[in-house]
Amino acid sequence: MAEYLANELSEKKRSEFEAQLVDDEQVRSEFEDYLNLWHESEQAGQASFDVDKAWAGMSVPKAPQQKVISIERKSNYTLLKIAATLLIVFTAGYFLSDTVQETLTNSITSNSLTELTTGSETKEFQLPDGSAIKLNANSSLAYEKGFGDTHRNIKLVGGANFDVERNEALPFVISAETSEVEVLGTSFDVNAYPDKDIELNVTEGRVKFSSKADNDKSGLVKAGERAMLSQDGSAMEQGEMKGSNYAAWWTRKLVFEATSFEEVVKDLENTYWVDIEFSEALSGCRLTATYDNESFDNVLDLLAATYADNQLKVVRTKENQIKLEGKVCAN
What we know:
This protein has 9 helices and 21 strands. It is of the alpha+beta class. It folds into 3 domains: 2-111, no CATH class; 115-240, Jelly Rolls (Sandwich), CATH 2.60.120.1440; 245-325, Phage tail protein beta-alpha-beta fold (3-Layer(bab) Sandwich), CATH 3.55.50.30. Strands 3, 4, 5, 6, 7, 8, 9, 10, 11, 12, 13, 14, 15 and 16 form a 14-stranded mixed beta sheet that branches. Helix 2 packs across helix 3. The radius of gyration is 25 Å and the shape is globular.
């Protein structure tokens, strides 16, 4: 146990020990006693793991330069999640910044599964095969052990931008809600949030896009094309990409060219993670504008200035909920 926490075990020995934690109740109980030192020291919403106290109960010399580390506690941690977090902390050997602490709580690695998640923010990751991923807010991505060596299969819930490293021997396969995406190496966006239609936008190469519910619903989507799969996987549409606003959640650039007010609102919601209602009077309005790396508040101010003649008014109903009111547009 001491060697495990000090990261002194070989990969094989570490895997064997973690298997023991799952299968052997006595070993698991003893290991939990050490981990409880962390839980019992919780104060003011944080928990500290007393390394010296833990090592005092073990019969082997403690590793050098151990420190007391404070980590935000998550009540739904399983035993292996806690062990994995402690392993990273012991290896690091220094007090972690808030950013790293947040990464630890949102990126959980066990012996067989790696899960990457986001909350209200977006994050960037590099997978073991060299592929780069931008993960949208409120999203998760998971892959099994051996990714990049024996397979490149992942599961996605939410939205992500992929820049996939080419490997003709190992196709890159994404399972996302009722859809499946398969590529050898290319760049594309997938939007697959629960209870919504699944959207694919391809910027480079070709992507195989298919329904897991209906084998007949499948297509090869090329660069510059967009495909939509219905929530239940029963219907698919494919055509030219509608501008670049689908990627604004990570490019932070929105371009509107005589765009309907309904489409403007939809793009703003997807980019800034807000809910927007607008009065029927504004439904006939069209917008031509470019917002490059603007905050949401700045965008609202610019909209109000653009539609000053229509007396556009911004009403904040709740946090992240906006209502736009105004007079009928002449255009």
